[in-house]
Amino acid sequence: MIDFSKIDLTIRSQHDGDLKSDVVAALKFAQSHHKQQKRKYTGEPYIIHPYRCTEYLSTILGRTREMVIAMPMHDVLEDTDCTPRDIDVFLTRRFKGDSVSSAAIVDLVVELTGKKTKGNRQARKEAEFERLSKASKSAKIMKMVDRRDNLLDLQFDNPEALSFAPVYVRESRLLIEAIGDANSALAMDVIDICDNIDYAIQSLS
Fold this sequence. Notes:
Blueprint: H1 19-34, H2 48-57, H3 65-70, H4 76-79, H5 84-94, H6 102-112, H7 121-133, H8 137-152, H9 159-179, H10 184-204
Helix pairs in contact: 2-8, 5-6, 6-8, 7-9, 8-9, 8-10, 9-10
């Protein structure tokens, strides 16, 4: 069982309020929907991914309280039976009378949720990157944090992951072309990780 209270968050300002308590509540909500889901290549509990993403997002200059609270829930609409209404009910109860914007948090999770489109993988990804290129700056930053963690999670001792890595790296570069304008330092970090993975793949071949 993961102890969410041990999450290491960077507090940016007094406007963060009781951010750790808020994030722990959001993680528990996300866990209640992800349940027994596992990470594809590591077999870890799925909630580890949003947990890490939230920690990293909290360190980024310019991020907001709403972004950090939304990050634990960024995959619940796409990967579980959770609905925007479920998130709204949770947030409304949690932040009644608080200055945090429940609507803004729901909107971020919705923005980060991939839309189901027809076509092969390349066509679907092109449509998704086009959609994300028009997303809010906050959603773009969160998506880059999400992609960064997914890249770092690739396991080269897993044959399936090793086979998929070149495709995922190529797609990641295209994603950064679409959304990297939101935070150039973060974009460069993701590209550096792509370069390192490409180098590692070449070394293994």
